Amino acid sequence: MGLLSGVLTCLVTEIYCHRCLAHRAFTVDPRLARVLDGFMQVYGGVHPRRWVGVHRLHHRYADTPLDPHSPLERHPLLILVGTPYLFAKARTRLPAEASPAPGAGHVAVRIGITAFWLLTIGLVQTVVAAAAHLVVYFGIMGMVNTAGHRSGTKPYPDVPGYDSAWLALLLLGHGYHNTHHARPGAARTGPLDPMWPIVRGLSAVGLVDLLGGVGQRLRERGVDEQAVHDVVHP
Fold this sequence. Notes:
Blueprint: H1 2-22, E1 27-28, H2 30-44, H3 48-60, H4 76-81, H5 83-91, H6 104-121, H7 123-147, H8 165-168, H9 177-182, H10 196-204, E2 208-209, H11 214-220, H12 225-232
Antiparallel strand pairs: 1-2
Helix pairs in contact: 1-2, 1-3, 1-7, 2-6, 6-7, 11-12
């Protein structure tokens, strides 16, 4: 249960918070967006706008002292296991309107879900499931932030991050980290991006509009990549 919810939270974070909201690679049907907003506030413990704000700090200041989670500026072990601490520290740099807390209703739902599992499977199993959820979610997020900035190839030499294609299958497509920093508005990070089939499937049933992404529209108009970057990553 905890493993499943942890993996699902990673998927929602990557597809919705990261590619859709932070980088505007595509748009999501408003009905699905409301569901994913609520899911992140309940299971991710964060409002999507706050997640987006912290992530944009990372792109704006990548691998500099102002980067919230650069393994080149901090010990890699801290990046790997210290995601909650680094995130909490970074969010204090955001303006209040860009960093809303989870709604009271969503907090109540989270408490209700916890109470349900306590009554049905008991304290020990509930604690184990919650621990598994946190380890999977923060572990994968920590690996994304650590591995993508440590080693690999640099198709874009002047851009932060490295590409390691085999890592893409394990890290939600972030094996292509250098490419992602160069083209943050791309809906697909690279050939082995495991999120791409999910995005295409959502597109096929009308829940994702791949042509609705700002970056895609600008590229179709012949706008150069640097200008696209400046628009999709304000």
